[in-house]
Amino acid sequence: MNQIKFRMIEDNLDPELVTNQTIEIINDWLSECQIFQNDIQKAMLYSHVKAMVERAKNLERLPEVDPTLFDELSEESLSLARRTVQLFNKLPMEEAYLLAVHYEVAKAN
């Protein structure tokens, strides 16, 4: 399992660099799961990850989300999303619900 932990504030990390590193990690995980994204899905995931990294840096929180809205997402997508969120030490798990949607859509390819 990946031991990377991005400490955005404590280590004064560059959001652009961390976004690119996070996308590389995600792409490795997706490849291992044989999940493939088209170009539009890649761009949307990149945009989401970039915003997520910025939230980790600025301690900005998402509006509250109702977890029952995501009941139909597969456990595989939710697990990948949780792993992604766990790369950061200052992100709430609510981030995983929205991120899992990207993984679920890519699984449908």
Describe this structure in words.
The chain has helices at about 15-30, 40-60, 75-85, 95-105. Helix 1 crosses helix 2 and helix 3 packs across helix 4 (about 95-105). The mean pLDDT is about 95. Helices cover about 60% and strands about 0% of the residues.
What can be said about this structure in brief?
With 109 residues, the protein is mainly alpha-helical. 58% of the residues lie in helices and 0% in strands.
| Helix and strand sequence | HHHH
Spans where pLDDT lies below 50 across 5 or more residues: none
Distance between the termini: 26 Å
Radius of gyration: 13 Å
Helix content: 55-70%
> How many strand segments?
0
> Which term fits the overall shape?
globular
Strand content: under 5%
Structural class estimated from helices and strands:
mainly alpha
Mean pLDDT: 94
Count, helices: 4
Topology of helices and strands:
Blueprint: H1 15-32, H2 39-58, H3 75-85, H4 94-107
Question: Which properties best describe this structure?
Answer:
109 residues; mainly alpha; globular
